[in-house]
């Protein structure tokens, strides 16, 4: 009696590494502002969220970019630093009355 041939195993999927660009950085900052300042922060510059958080977030973005070697987010040097910046943007939140960072690395 002949044994059945073993099923061919699919090759493990190769992880594709995304190349992060300045566009991705700007999108992350926009998501963060919408989450913290409000969905329509661009149109409602007189809203409480805008008044309270816009300057604070601008400073936070600059300080976070500096951690990864750039004067400002648009000047981040490579995809890896942009990916880390984006992860921090997605992790920052308001607790109590202040920004709290829980960067995932």
List the helices and strands and how they pair.
Layout: H1 22-37, H2 48-67, H3 79-91, E1 93-95, E2 98-100
Antiparallel strand pairs: 1-2
Helix pairs in contact: 1-2, 1-3
Question: What can be said about this structure in brief?
Answer:
The protein is mostly helical and 105 residues long.
Structure commentary:
The structure is a single chain. With 105 residues, the chain is mostly helical. 47% of the residues lie in helices and 6% in strands. It is built from three helices and two strands. The N and C termini lie far apart (56 Å). The model has no long low-confidence stretch (mean pLDDT 88).
Quick one: biggest sheet?
Answer: 2 strands, antiparallel
Q: Please tell me what the overall shape is.
A: globular
Kindly estimate the percentage of residues that lie in beta strands according to DSSP.
5-15%
> Topology as H/E string?
HHHEE
Key structural traits:
6% strand; 105 residues
């Amino acid at each position: 009696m002949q044994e059945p041939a073993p099923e061919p195993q699919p090759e493990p999927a190769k992880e594709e590494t995304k190349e992060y660009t300045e566009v991705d950085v700007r999108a992350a900052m926009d998501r963060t502002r919408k989450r913290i300042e409000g969905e329509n922060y661009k149109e409602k510059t007189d809203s409480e969220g805008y008044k309270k958080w816009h300057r604070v977030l601008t400073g936070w973005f600059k300080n976070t970019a500096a951690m990864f070697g750039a004067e400002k987010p648009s000047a981040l040097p490579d995809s890896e630093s942009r990916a880390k910046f984006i992860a921090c943007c997605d992790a920052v939140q308001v607790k109590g009355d202040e920004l709290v960072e829980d960067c995932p690395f």
